[in-house]
């Protein structure tokens, strides 16, 4: 029997089931959207938190490195020799210069510097040009025939990856391996002597540098 609307009970029942299914679908869609939003929020918060943690870790590591450099620069290098910078001439000359130490750690020098951007020279370099490199904050690594080839190779590898350094043989020097900066000098026997790393950390563009930031390229290129 049909109702006043002209629909049979079966039709009413079917429409009710359809309406219920629609409500269920809508409720499911709302739940899914809520879950998606919640999940996205958790992921974003997690990523932000992770990113902040990484940045904090990076800043802490950078600060540790800065502190290590600062400590190294404040700590004297055991066994190093020091000359008073006030007594080291800084005039540019194009005549021979007689230095009181070998290798020299400062004094009057040629107007052009030796390239010192991690340059490793197989042959001796002019002292007057190398001293100009020291004025720019370079560390000059030198060696003689007493140095074992393996130690020379290790030092060459270190110099090759360190800006503001250069390396060359100096046959007449007293020590097997010597490191020189402006007014500073250290003699060692082995490339892995911890004082080598300390000397580099302390004096590559260190506080002893008369002209910090001056170029170490576009100078004299040796062999």
From TrEMBL:
This protein's record includes keyword Membrane: yes
Transmembrane segments: 34-56
Annotated stretches, region: Disordered: 1-29
Pfam assignment, any one: DUF3105
Keywords: Membrane, Transmembrane, Transmembrane helix
Compositionally biased region (Basic and acidic residues): 7-29
Protein name per its UniProtKB record: DUF3105 domain-containing protein
Lineage, opening ranks: Bacteria, Bacillati, Actinomycetota, Actinomycetes, Kitasatosporales
């Amino acid at each position: 029997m049909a109702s006043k609307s002209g629909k049979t009970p079966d039709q009413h029942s079917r429409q009710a089931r359809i309406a219920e299914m629609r409500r269920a679908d809508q409720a499911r869609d709302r739940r899914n959207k809520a879950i998606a939003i919640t999940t996205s929020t958790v992921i974003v918060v997690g990523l932000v938190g992770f990113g902040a943690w990484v940045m904090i870790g990076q800043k802490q590591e950078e600060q540790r490195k800065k502190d290590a450099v600062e400590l190294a620069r404040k700590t004297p290098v055991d066994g190093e020799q020091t000359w008073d910078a006030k007594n080291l001439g800084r005039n540019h000359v194009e005549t021979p210069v007689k230095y009181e130490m070998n290798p020299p750690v400062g004094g009057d020098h040629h107007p052009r510097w030796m390239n010192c951007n991690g340059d490793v020279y197989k042959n001796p370099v002019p002292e007057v040009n190398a001293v100009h490199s020291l004025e720019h904050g370079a560390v000059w690594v030198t060696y003689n025939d007493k140095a074992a080839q393996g130690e020379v190779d290790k030092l060459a590898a270190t110099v090759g990856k360190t800006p503001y350094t250069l390396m060359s043989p100096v046959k007449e020097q007293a020590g097997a391996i010597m490191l020189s900066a402006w007014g500073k000098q250290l003699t060692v026997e082995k490339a892995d002597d911890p004082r080598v790393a300390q000397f580099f950390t302390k004096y590559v563009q260190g506080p002893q540098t008369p002209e910090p930031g001056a170029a170490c390229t576009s100078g004299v290129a040796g062999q």
